[in-house]
Specification:
With about 230 residues, the protein is of the alpha/beta class. It has two domains: about 1-125, Response regulator (Rossmann fold, 3-Layer(aba) Sandwich); about 135-230, Arc Repressor Mutant, subunit A. The chain is built from eight helices and twelve strands. Strands 2-1-3-4-5 form a five-stranded parallel beta sheet, sandwiched between helices. α1 packs across α5 (about 110-125), α2 (about 35-45) packs parallel to α3 (about 60-70) and α6 (about 165-175) crosses α8. The longest helix is centred in the middle third of the chain and has 19 residues, at about 110-125. The N and C termini lie far apart (about 40 Å).
Length: about 230
């Protein structure tokens, strides 16, 4: 069963989200604040596939919960629920390890599509669904990407990646030296039916640079191609 944890202090919104996800085939657990969400996550031994976090919650806000969840697992999918006015919080959530965000108000179809997209990445990463056969490794010194184990090494150092980060890196590695625009990256990683904007790509690139570059502010490998997007330099 596909398991989702919803942390939202507004009962009517939480109920609406829960109803629609249950209709879509998800096993839903509800939390009314961040403290309860973390307790439920730990109580279920990290068995949730996706966690939806409202940013503005009492006791412990969604950003702090996101940070703590990501420290516990790089595999769980995390989606932030935000208001239109919370632009800075959206970026902060992505930088803390969230996979996506949904802006309120949202339609049931958008909610389901976004959760489905994150769940597919989680399922692929955990082996719940089969991955197409391919070569096990891509080597672009000093990096080695292992497609079977879904790991990235820089020399002998393991670089911890979320599902989104792994898919982005895999896309760059299989298109090394080729400029990739934001729209292509968005469609490849988040899917054709993604409802969000391209900002999510830029924030994830920033996060990746912090992990892989010797000097993130002067990137050598994951570089910007002005007017086009990004490309990978070996």
């Amino acid at each position: 069963m596909k398991k989702v944890l919803i942390a939202e202090d507004e009962a009517n919104i939480r109920e609406l989200v829960a109803i629609n996800l249950r209709r879509a085939g998800y096993d839903v657990t509800e939390a009314g604040d961040g403290v309860q969400a973390l307790a439920l996550y730990n109580e279920h031994a990290g068995s949730f596939d996706v966690v939806l976090l409202d940013i503005m919650m009492p006791n412990l806000d969604g950003l702090e919960v996101c940070k703590q969840l990501r420290a516990l697992s790089d595999k769980v999918g995390i989606i932030m629920l935000t208001a239109k006015t919370q632009e800075l919080d959206k970026v902060s959530g992505l930088l803390m390890g969230a996979d996506d965000y949904i802006t309120k108000p949202f339609s049931p179809s958008e909610l389901t599509a976004r959760v489905d997209s994150v769940y597919r990445r989680v399922a692929l990463n955990t082996g719940t669904v089969a991955e197409p056969k391919k070569n096990d490794r891509i080597e672009l010194p000093p990096f080695e990407l292992n497609l079977r184990n879904r790991t990235l090494y820089k020399g002998d150092r393991l670089i911890e990646l979320t599902q989104v980060e792994f898919q982005i890196i895999e896309y760059f590695f299989t298109n090394a030296g080729k400029p990739l625009n934001r729209t292509d990256i968005l469609r490849h990683v988040w899917g054709e039916s993604y409802f969000g904007d391209e900002k999510v790509v830029d924030v994830n690139i920033r996060r990746l640079r912090m992990k892989i570059e010797d000097e993130p502010s002067v990137p050598h490998h994951l570089v910007t191609v002005w007017g086009m997007g990004y490309k990978w330099n070996s």
